[in-house]
User: Fold this.
Amino acid sequence: MSYLQSLGVQARTSTDEKLIASIGAVLAICAVFYLTDRLTNFEVAMALLPSMGASAVLLMAVPHGILSQPWPLFGGQLLSALCGILCAMLVDNPYLAAGSAVGAAILVMHLFRCIHPPGGATALTAVIGGQHVTDLGFYFLLVPTALNCLVILAFALIFNNLFHWRRYPSSLMKYDNSMYSPETA
Assistant:
């Protein structure tokens, strides 16, 4: 193992792959931002956009990763949003509510086997996203969170599957096992 690998430096990625991931993220976030702004308001869209940006990184740059799959996306985002909403409603101290929202989101994502790191940001958004977000209450689960997940999932499904080496979800990926057959050993 090289020194850089021991530090966690990622393997090289082709220029094509970098461009494809970047273009996919541009399109997905433009759509998410536009729809959230139209269906709620600009303040709500701005509050939730960082979390969706992180989801876009996972779904477009690491489409075969376990944290990028549909269940972690939906389960992680929606369960985390619910944790955030409940903490915003039940915990008066904003510092404790913010910490509790993220901690509860991690616990619930573990319990439901749907770890999706951007969910922590969604839980936090439900607590500190401002009056426009907290006024949504449980509606925050549907619009914008569930809607954004649907939009970003649709982009991931369509965009990633345009390229034969990028099947999404990863269960659609077919591997050539012939190079691992006993005859080649």
